[in-house]
Write a structure and sequence with these properties.
The protein is an alpha+beta fold. It is built from twelve helices and six strands. InterPro entries: AlkZ-rel.
Length: 228
């Protein structure tokens, strides 16, 4: 029997609770039916003018300390619960800290620049990051490709969203992503606590967990989710 939620997400707290139950939760619908925030949330809460919905909840969830947020699944947004961050990072990093990945020639110089800028600052708004590394007209290109790859490899995540404010102090528009390393948000000890395991062992642990809560999903579907 599936342990899936009914469609019942109505708040940031509800979203966080769903992430904690699933362990992994993509933001958008995917090959596994019902396995997304998009499908778990009533349609009327998307882009509603008078109530908060998933777009507004992602910031509070990201800064809650209870889950990792970023472009984590097939280069699209999603969450990983605090419980499963160590195995997720161990598998996605394939046993490499970023410096070791660079030393072995497995990372690009642009990725290195972005990672070191974020790690050095602790947290960094995307706007400031682009300015600092000359991602502007006539300058560097490929920012989204690089920052997405760093998130998929779990070296970088989104810590929060910062909104512009009108003259009355009310937020408006799309939030500007604030990037950080998972180590900055959750601590080095937590992030590296599964490093003693082989990355494939971490994958198998995650597969077993997802199989137990998504019994209708195939091995191929779960593998695609976890590999990204």
């Amino acid at each position: 029997m599936s342990k899936r939620y009914a469609r019942q997400l109505h708040s940031a707290d509800g979203l966080i609770a769903a992430v904690e139950q699933y362990g992994f939760l993509p933001f958008f619908r995917n090959e596994i039916h019902g396995f997304s925030i998009e499908e778990l949330c009533p349609p009327e809460l998307w882009f509603a003018d008078d109530v908060d919905g998933p777009w507004e909840w992602k910031g509070p969830a990201a800064r809650s300390g209870k889950c990792l947020y970023g472009k984590l699944f097939n280069k699209k947004a999603g969450f990983v619960s605090r419980e499963w961050i160590p195995d997720f990072a161990n598998f996605r990093r394939d046993g490499y800290d970023f410096d070791a990945r660079w030393d072995d020639g497995l990372a690009s110089y642009k990725d290195k620049e972005l990672y070191e800028a974020i790690a050095g600052e602790g947290r960094m708004l995307s706007k400031r990051l682009k300015e600092a590394l000359n991602y502007r007209k006539g300058g560097n290109t490929g920012f989204e490709t690089c920052i997405t790859r760093l998130q998929m490899q779990s070296y970088v995540c989104i810590a929060d969203f910062v909104y512009m404010q009108d003259r009355y102090g009310r937020p408006y528009g799309w939030g500007v992503a604030e990037y950080a390393t998972p180590e900055e948000l959750f601590g080095y000890d937590l992030i590296t606590s599964a490093y003693q395991r082989d990355p494939q062992e971490s994958k198998e642990r995650m597969m077993q967990h997802l199989s137990s809560i998504l019994p209708g999903a195939s091995v191929q579907q779960l593998t695609k989710i976890l590999k990204g």
